[in-house]
Amino acid sequence: MRILIAAGGTGGHICPGLAIASYLKENFQDVRVLWIGGSRDTDSRVLTSHDLEFASISMQSWPRQFSAKRIDFAWNIASSFLQVFLVLIRFRPHVVVGTGSYHSFPAVVLSYFLGIKSFICEQNVNPSLTNKLLARFASRIAISFPQTRGLLPRSERHKVRLVGNPIRSEILKASRKKGLRTLGLEEGCFTFFFLGGSQGAHILNRVGIETIDLLKKEKSLRNIQVVFVTGRKDLALVREYLKLAGIPSIVQEYMSQIQYAYAASDLVVCRSGATTLAEITARGLPAILIPYPYATNSHQLENARFLEAQGAAYSILEKDLTAPKLATVILKLVKNQDVLKEMGKKGRQLALPRATEVIVSTILDLGKIKC
User: How far apart are CA 154 and CA 150, in angstroms?
Assistant: First the structure.
């Protein structure tokens, strides 16, 4: 069984592909997965740590503004098509899977002309430009939000299935007790999880530690502890502050075993990338969402609005984000445990935790491979 996955760039594209690859490798002994991605060190480091074959291509994102970069783009896309063509001829995949990043563009287009079935995943409410272009070439399209169907080309909507965003099985399996023990945190404390996405978020780190400073002064909120995923640049800053503040905490640049942080947490403060939302809703975690304002097509804003409208989260625009405002929202939620529980319940109702299983089943069906 040969499956080619094309994705790269950010965790929002890489994580769904990893969930699919992990499920295939865990459940089918004869599976062989080859990953095509970007040339960044972070891409290859993450993928090789999961024991996946990896081939990098020179594909770049489309320059939104007219500049000399478009000449480089034309050269890179031509090179990428040649690189991917050679990989497809050599690897001969049964199915090609794309998860929305521009790295999947040459793989899905070429698979169409070579007669290879393909499957693309759209994690956000607003489909990416890549997936809009690939809709006509793909054999099947998976979406995570019901309204996404209406934003894809009308002629291709018959291919669309609402299945959710694939997440790793470990996300659901970790218990709170195991999460606290693994992270070295205490039972009986209210645990906050600040998560800025796969690259970290400076404003969330800065406002986060200022907010913690305000919260620790609250007499009604004495027993608190914090999990912080900061990204590389702010790691030392956040770690040193929380150490001096005397607040039990675990601070990491990147958390590969993020399931333990979710399991240990009572409230998440995070961006509203699709993978993060799929994971917190699957866990039934209440969240305060800070959409990344520069995300393409404002997709993080639309994701956050959807969850907030369903009562599963509270959102604050980055331009409005201050420590006093965030602390006020947190205190309001913490002092009303019923509201927190209801948010978690609403989130779990939105979750599609079998997404990975359903997607893999569809991939197998496309490749005419029996389970």
Answer: 7
Residues 170-350, CATH architecture: 3-Layer(aba) Sandwich (3.40)
pLDDT of residue 371: 44
Q: How far is CA 53 from CA 21, 32, 269, in A?
A: 11, 9, 34
CA 367 vs CA 19, 28, 293, 360: distances in Å: 19, 14, 39, 11
- The pLDDT value given to residue 12: 76
CA atoms within 13 A on the CB side of 196: 25
Domain 2-167+353-366 has CATH 3.40.50.2000: yes
CA distances 117 to 53, 83, 164, 196, Å, are: 21, 19, 20, 35
pLDDT per 10-residue tile (average), the chain, 371 residues: 87 87 90 84 66 79 58 76 95 94 91 96 91 95 94 95 92 94 93 80 91 86 89 89 88 90 96 93 96 86 95 96 96 92 95 93 84 44
Residue 124 contacts residue 299 (beta carbons within 8 Å): yes
- One fold for both 2-167+353-366 and 170-350? yes
pTM above 0.70, yes or no: yes
Residues 172, 350, 268, 203, CA torsion sign: positive
pLDDT at 225: 93
Q: How far apart are CA 45 and CA 152, in angstroms?
A: 33
The CA angle 248-264-164, to the nearest 5 degrees, is: 140
CA distance 224 to 258: 19
Compute the Cα dihedral for 122, 127, 133, 137 and give only its sign.
positive
Q: How far apart are CA 77 and CA 258, in angstroms?
A: 34
Written as six digits, the tokens of 319 are 């331009």
Q: How far apart are the first and last CA of the chain?
A: 11
The pLDDT assigned to 64 comes to: 56
Domain boundaries, the chain: 2-167+353-366, 170-350
